[in-house]
Amino acid sequence: MSGFAKRNLKVFFKDKTAVFFSLLAVLIIIGLYALFLGDVWVNSLGNLPGTRYLMDSWIVAGLLAVTSITTTMGAFGTMVEDKVKKISKDFSASPLSRSSIVGGYTISSFIIGVIMSLVTLVLAEVYVVAFGGELLSLASLAKVFGLILLSTFTNTSIVLFITSFFNSTNAFSTASTIIGTVIGFLTGIYLPIGQLPVGVQWVIKLFPVSHAAALLRQEITAEPMAATFAGAPESVIENFKELMGITYKFGDKVVSANFSIVILLATALVFYALSLIVISRKKTGK
């Protein structure tokens, strides 16, 4: 399994186009933020101190949530290409078991998602510092790394399930484009969740990747928020968190970090199990 995973890693990183398009959604978000979204949100906070640092940190968290799903989607493109080129038949005829083959694709996609997320984090931190912000503390970096592992684990399972239905590179590319476009809305980057209709807010709150974004925002924006809202009433801070998708509420109850973690873990396990069922049914021709 490990040897097969290494093969998939080499195939992915050798294809520079695949690497680029897996980051396309992230590049689009950065471009939009740099051109006008950043100024819009900074200006909306008025004359509060450290608003640029706060909003840059907010966008970094969203970028990490997006990267962990778009890059794993790009990584699973190898599995689709192997099907199209009939290479998967060679693997099936080899001593590798079906579970080892699926595990190899899954492990390599997870590793790619983590690597690309860490690259995004490093570049984003450089951007934050360049515009007057501060680097995350070692304790915060450790927590963010843990959240990257968790969100990538969940997204790998979701994308594995989605990819298991594709036997065409064109269909897979179309799905990747759609997901890359929609993910910015579902994670509340283009428009904060508080500005969306109530029905759409519920959809976002029920979407697992949104909980990964919220957890990352809670950690990454903690320090800049403390500086920006120093001395502000607690109600003002809570309203801002809810508006920007830093915390979610179901009715009057705030969703705790532990509950979001449980959602992500449960989602990962459910979708991985569903993926195995779909793949095994295709193998047996059902």
Q: How are the secondary structure elements laid out?
A:
Blueprint: H1 2-14, H2 16-22, H3 24-44, H4 51-75, H5 77-84, H6 87-93, H7 98-130, H8 138-163, H9 169-186, H10 198-206, H11 208-220, H12 222-228, H13 234-243, E1 249-250, E2 253-254, H14 257-284
Antiparallel strand pairs: 1-2
Helix pairs in contact: 1-7, 2-4, 3-4, 3-9, 4-7, 4-8, 4-9, 4-11, 4-12, 7-8, 8-11, 8-14, 11-14
Task: Give a structural overview.
The chain is an all-alpha fold and 286 residues long. The protein has 14 helices and two strands; from the N terminus they run αααααααααααααββα. The chain has one domain. Strands 1-2 form a two-stranded antiparallel sheet. A hairpin with a 2-residue loop joins β1 and β2. α2 crosses α4, α3 runs parallel beside α9 and α4 packs antiparallel against α9. The radius of gyration is 20 Å and the shape is elongated. The protein starts with a helix and ends with a helix.
